[in-house]
Structures are given as structure tokens and as C-alpha cells.
Specification:
The protein is mainly beta. The chain has two domains: 92 residues, Ribosomal Protein L25, Chain P; 80 residues, Ribosomal protein L25, C-terminal domain (RNA Polymerase Alpha Subunit, Chain A, domain 2, Beta Complex), CATH 2.170.120.20. A seven-stranded mixed sheet has the order 1-5-6-7-3-4-2. A four-stranded mixed sheet has the order 11-8-10-13, with no helix packed on it. The chain has a three-stranded antiparallel sheet with strand order 9-14-12, with no helix packed on it. The radius of gyration is 29 Å and the shape is elongated. The protein starts with a strand and ends in a 32-residue tail after the last strand.
């Protein structure tokens, strides 16, 4: 898998005021931690994070480059965003051990045209990602799910997935990933001829005008 790279710099000062100052300078406050690393405050160019990391799906290894980083491979564990503007506020990085398995989310890509869709059915994905367990270098960018054989009402469960070697799905219940719904037909009510009374409906009173003299 491709390893992304980010340039980082150590952050000597911490706190909300300092974080706001960094954001005004175009730098995103971050923290790096791991089983063998003490929490380390960092700062990242915000535009670089947006360009390289923010738009990707799934889990990707990220090499942090900078003074004192060494060969530091990480995963993004959490991204905080402003509730109104959606601007990035803070990022957590977790340093991984290449010899230790971990659990990450992997996106699902549904491929092929389901047989049931050709008959008017509707392909209905129920999950867009699943949790998998593997070594860091085996993290899949995505998992393909072939739906071409699905007829109407057919389903694919997580246990039926064909996963890359060394990758296993993490689940306690064999949940459904995708199904094909039957076609929906809108039934319109029959038109009612003028003057005809519907059975069971009360008679309609006609408004009376003033009596002529």
C-alpha cells in the first residue's frame, strides 16, 4: 500500500490559546502518541493536511517527517472539526508497530451490476465500511464486493467476503452488507366520474342559493 508523508514540527507550547495562534498561522495542532512513545505535541501545515489526508477514505499509513521523528509510521486516530465552520481544529496520530496487528476500518466498493437490478430491483448497500484486523503494511485501501450475482431479495453477509491474504473481518454478528430490494410501483387511485357517489360515502349536499320571489 502507498505510504503518505506529512511534514511536521514539534510544538513546545500547548493550550487553547497556543492552538488558536497556530491555526491563525496556517498550522494545524496535533498530538502523536503510541505504545512506545510519550505524547508529543506537533504542528502540521493545514493546507498540506487538507490536500494529502483529509479527502482520502479508509485507513492509510502516514510517515511523519521532521526533527526527531525518525522512521515514524502512524495512523490518523481522530480529527476534530469546528461544529459550525467544519474547519480542522486538531488531529491525533497513533504510531504503529509494523510487527503488531491492529484493527482499522476498510471501505467497501460494490462492483458489477446486480441481476436483480436488471429486473427493476434497487441495489441497497447497508454498510459502507467494515472493521478488519491485519498488520499495518497489509491494510487494504478498500474491499471489493461483487454484486453481479444478486437477484431480488438476495443478500451478501460479512462472512461471505473474499478478503486479501492476512486480512480478517472483525465482527460478532454476521451482518448484511448489501441487498437488492424489489421494484417499487406507485399505484394511483382510479379517477371518479363526475356525479357518481362512492359506495359508503355520505351524500354531498349542494349549496342552495336565495329563493326567488
Amino acid at each position: 500500500m502507498e505510504i503518505l508523508e506529512l511534514q511536521v514540527e514539534p510544538r513546545q507550547q500547548v493550550g487553547k490559546g497556543v492552538a488558536r495562534k497556530f491555526r491563525r498561522m496556517g498550522k494545524l495542532p496535533a498530538i502523536l502518541y503510541g505504545r512506545k512513545r510519550e505524547p508529543t505535541p506537533l504542528a502540521i501545515p493545514t493546507k498540506e493536511f487538507q490536500r494529502k489526508i483529509a479527502a482520502i477514505e479508509g485507513a492509510h499509513l502516514i510517515r511523519l517527517k521532521g526533527d526527531g521523528m525518525g522512521e515514524c509510521l502512524t495512523l490518523v486516530k481522530d480529527v476534530q472539526r469546528h461544529p459550525v465552520t467544519d474547519a480542522f481544529l486538531h488531529v491525533d496520530f497513533y504510531e504503529v508497530d509494523l510487527a503488531e496487528k491492529l484493527t482499522v476500518s476498510a471501505p467497501l466498493h460494490f462492483v458489477g451490476k446486480a441481476a436483480g437490478v436488471a429486473l427493476g430491483g434497487i441495489l441497497q448497500p447497508l454498510r459502507r465500511e467494515i472493521d478488519v484486523r491485519c498488520l499495518p503494511m497489509q491494510i487494504p485501501e478498500f474491499i471489493e464486493v461483487d454484486v453481479s450475482h444478486l437477484g431480488i431479495h438476495d443478500t451478501i453477509h460479512v462472512s461471505e467476503l473474499r478478503l486479501p491474504e492476512g486480512v480478517e473481518a472483525v465482527y460478532t454478528e454476521d451482518f448484511t452488507l448489501v441487498t437488492v430490494l424489489p421494484p417499487t410501483v406507485e399505484v394511483s387511485a382510479p379517477s371518479q366520474p363526475a356525479g357518481e357517489t362512492v359506495a359508503g360515502a355520505p351524500p354531498v349536499e349542494t349549496a342552495k342559493g336565495p329563493t326567488e320571489k
